[in-house]
């Protein structure tokens, strides 16, 4: 179980060529995530499978801070992909690869990696960024994590310049950062909870919450279940 706090995040949303799916899982499980979490400052790597209209997969790599994702050890790996990585990445239909920094968090990291995650990507009205951030930090996230079945809620802001650093690996998948500025992650204990009355009512919200949500632009709400996870080995 990771003990350090994670404030940096790399999120990748992708589909995979169907005929390559088994080999993709073998590569991602046995080499790729292990390679990533071996980089100093990486804490964990998770792969989630999408439901409904979501991307087929969401990869989340947690780091001590966002600077880790621009560090020399990490960039060295990106610029020297293994033969297996060179074979695998062209089979990924990456829609976005984005580096984020944590803005707000409420609740507690679960003892075990969350089995389900609701992921919201969105922009906001020009000039309304700080109001959205304050609302999430002071009101919305604290309310969400009080619901039975929600362990933690987090709000991230994208870092486009860091996300667009040119590397050999990026040239292989050809994708850049998400067009939405913000990413909210809600860690949930069960699939049924997403359809529960309590969750739906909170999403509907009060008058204030409806007003704030009206400021959200290009909202993309998706649901994922845990497919694979690996944490970094802590050294003394």
Explain what this protein looks like in three dimensions.
With 236 residues, this protein is an alpha+beta fold. It has one domain (8-231): Alpha-Beta Plaits. The chain has helices at residues 21-37, 72-78, 83-88, 129-144, 160-163, 168-173, 197-204, 207-213; strands spanning 8-16, 42-50, 57-63, 92-107, 116-124, 150-158, 182-188, 216-231. Strands 1-3-2-8-5-7-6-4 form an eight-stranded antiparallel beta barrel. The model has no long low-confidence stretch (mean pLDDT 92).
In brief:
The chain has helices at residues 21-37, 72-78, 83-88, 129-144, 160-163, 168-173, 197-204, 207-213; strands at residues 8-16, 42-50, 57-63, 92-107, 116-124, 150-158, 182-188, 216-231.
- Sheet with the most strands, sense and barrel status: 8 strands, antiparallel, barrel
| Number of domain modules | 1
Physical arrangement of strands within the biggest beta sheet: 1-3-2-8-5-7-6-4
Tell how many strands the DSSP assignment holds.
8
Helix content: 25-40%
CATH topology: Alpha-Beta Plaits
Number of helices: 8
Indicate the low-confidence ranges by residue numbers: none
> β content, as a range?
25-35%
Protein topology:
Layout (H helix, E strand, L loop, with lengths): L7 E9 L4 H17 L4 E9 L6 E7 L8 H7 L4 H6 L3 E16 L8 E9 L4 H16 L5 E9 L1 H4 L4 H6 L8 E7 L8 H8 L2 H7 L2 E16 L5
Antiparallel strand pairs: 1-3, 1-4, 2-3, 2-8, 4-6, 5-7, 5-8, 6-7
List keywords for this structure.
Alpha-Beta Plaits; 8 helices; 35% strand; alpha+beta; 8 strands; eight-stranded antiparallel β-barrel; 236 residues
